[in-house]
Amino acid sequence: MRPVYMLSGGITKFAKAHPEKDFRLMVKEAFDYAMADLPGLSREMIDGSVCSYFSDHFTRQLKAGAMVQDYLGLCPKPSKRIEGGGATGGLCLQSAWEAVASERMEVCVAMGFETMSRVNTWKGNEFIAQASDSNFDYPVGGFYTGYYAMMVQRHMFEFGTTVEQMARVAIKNHANALHNPYAQSPGKLTIEEVRSSPMVAAPLTKLDCCTMSDGAAVAILASEDFAERLCNRPVRITGVGCGSVSMRMADRPHGKVILLPHESEGDYRDLKYPGVHSFRGGRMAAGLAYKMAGISNPSNELDFIELHDAYTSSEIQTYEDLGLCRYGEGGSFVEAGAPFMRDLDYGLKFNPGHWKHVPVNPSGGLLACGHPVGATGLMQAVFAFWQLQGTIGKHLKTSALQVPDAKRGLIHSHAGTGTYITVTIMESAG
Amino acid sequence: MKKVIGLPETGEGTVLFNVDPIIIKQHYEIDYIHSYAQDSPFFAGLTKKKLLGSRCAGCGYTYATPRGHCMTCGAKTEWIELPLNGKVHTFTTCYFGGEEFLKETPFTLVLVEFDGVDTLFLSRLAGVEPAEVRIGLAVKARFLRNCKFRPTDIYFVPA
Questions:
Q1: How many domains does chain B have?
Q2: What is the rounded (10 degree) CA torsion for A178, A184, A190, A193?
Q3: Is residue B41 part of a domain?
Q4: Closest B-chain CA to A150
Q5: pTM for the model
Q6: ipTM above 0.90, yes or no
Q7: Is B104 part of a structural domain of the chain?
Q8: Cα separation of A345 and A325, whole Å?
Q9: A430 pLDDT above the threshold of 90
Q10: Using beta carbons and an 8 Å cutoff, which residues of B are at the interface with A?
Q11: Residue B82: its chain A contacts at CB < 8 A?
Q12: Does residue A71 contact residue A361 with C-beta atoms inside 8 Å?
């Protein structure tokens, strides 16, 4: 496989509703932004595209990807649709990576969207819950927040994780988003505010959960030859991994931890894994991506992370899957301030901890940016691209979220209760 | 007289939410003809107040939620009758949800573990206050008298 680079990216503002734009126009806006940021690229040089959107129920338009393709003026070039629940965007990026790595294409556009405002929130919850077993899970009271709540109850039981630790994740991501004009719900929160917001599924309150959104994102990938010709500061994709686990949480095994290079079996003598407390597919994805990128100790070798925080709890669980801390330490990791931006004020005091500092979700993540499913994984790619280019100030109109001297970042996309998870490593090529 | 050509007008209108842009209500409804296929014996079992799971004929792995083939080794499974007593493995109480279940909120979901069974079973827990539910709580199965051929024909209560 040959090297693949990201050359440009664009996003629309994520919002509760964009009734003035349909999905085609939203993607067009993100695409035009990406094209304008890479003046050397003409539409003729694009070999094809991959389009990601999660739910045909939300879109209520089958073959919507084909409509995006023609709206962008990319017909008759090759295109296809990628769908994999919440990981749809991450899978789309990796599919575009495959197209270039395999030499099938020189330049491939990864484009994604979701239009969730077309139904009310309770109907949207029903659509999303249909991504659970329709014989045994959905009819029992299918509700994704309920599933994640059961997962974190078990995490709290196994490891002593607390709701206050979870609230810190909400505070961090909402506060980071104060400096991100693309974000849907920036805000300065306190632990009390997170805990006193309406209970959705115990212990998860409304502020522990991401929102439904309308939005689109585009990432343009290309070969080394095109990267050198077209882009001053390309970003290389140096590792891709993905993993899976049984759809039904009830079926998750209780076996041994999949170890990362910096861990040993002795770390987890008594832990039954993954149970319902951890995401085995996330660990699998991380292991594969680290191997490809040559990473042996992730928190020493990554400068920032954009991960799929659909819930505050899943961010904590994901620290552990990614090996930023050991399984069971995720709550203490956030309490020690390890995933916070160094120079921002969160109104929190941090406990001392031995973990390496690595900012997680400087963009604000799903909790504060919003989660227009098919766009989300690509939105992470765009923010990571700007971080690694050092162009956060240019694109967000403030450098507050720029991680100084960022050389290598990780993005992580996650589908319902961990059924599909992608991890992609990106590095500045300069 | 000149013949007038035109489609018949109707009295039906459109629900309009907004005019700039124009946002209208679109109705959509489907009845599926859904087969439980190889999972059918489970639902038949509920009508006889039996909870059926699966045991792999190859490796012996047992499933509290049935599946026709083993997730571990791929062999065909056989039906087994599960105990009607178990313990709460994890739980939540939902105060919000999908439209179909909104009218039932708040309701408590549990994953139930059974002695000697390798996997869990998702169900509703009744007869206990949300604050009283604990991991490890002993529970026993109850069955609806009027079966609906849905997994909620069985539910659990404190033992």
A1: 1
A2: 160
A3: yes
A4: B91
A5: 0.97
A6: yes
A7: yes
A8: 24
A9: no
A10: 18, 21, 23, 26, 28, 34, 36, 39, 63-65, 67, 71-72, 89-102, 104, 107, 109-111, 118-124, 130, 135, 150-152
A11: none
A12: no
